């Protein structure tokens, strides 16, 4: 009986430094909304929920595998909700080994099959396919450039993008993968300019994307070259500055200003808890809210089965989301929205049904 009175401890793995550290405030604040909601009810497994914040940045001083393994070994955590890059997920999947449920929340490259690990974010097939087709049909760029950080998500996304370009009979003018934390992106902007590309698929993370967009704006390329990103969000827009955001598009399943029933309810709870000066809402942050809620639904409906399931098993999990309306059927994938930067806000211009 003593165990039932203890807190249900969730390790919230988010980057708190480095290129992706800009996302941390929104991620923490969104996850706190889910915890507050769950604790007004029965929590998880009849226990009040507690978050343990852990820095999962690639640049963190202590290897994340050591931290997480020690927490699991000491029974200090009951579950993991992770919003971090895929390179970290791949490292952790070899450590967690079904000892606690592991919910991975952001967009990712797809194909995660590790038992006990549930990746709930969008994949390139969902985000890129329809968005690239729409932009190609509307703006008719003769060729595309691809630039991203050098790890699995950009490389896999760009592999898919290249197959879409071939399908549309459009040329690839440029492809580059860069390390994290580069302060100057002018060289790559110049190379893209010389390539003659009319569109850029931008798969840089956090501060790296900001540095690129600022360099892009300084060079004036946005007057004739469009940009598409699947990871650009509202914090990034604010940091880039409106003058550097012309002809920039983003494809994702959530924007902070979506006029949907699900988002209206989420925003009311978010600002009700944190006040009007709360960190800006975005897809990356909302994903941690959804991850904590998904964990609660998973444990309610599949507490005896989760260890033997994975992301591709299409488990029917009932959970709250800022993206998916309660009226949608359980297990339905969120819509993908294509938006254009309008100042430092996104204006949604198209919605697609997910097929991934």
Automatic annotation (TrEMBL):
Pfam families the record matches: Peripla_BP_6
Record keywords, A-Z: Signal
Organism domain of life: Bacteria
Entries under CDD domains matching the protein: PBP1_NHase (cd06358)
Residues covered by the Leucine-binding protein domain: 8-300
InterPro entries: Leu-bd, Peripla_BP_I
Similarity annotation: Belongs to the leucine-binding protein family.
Protein's UniProt name: Leucine-binding protein domain-containing protein
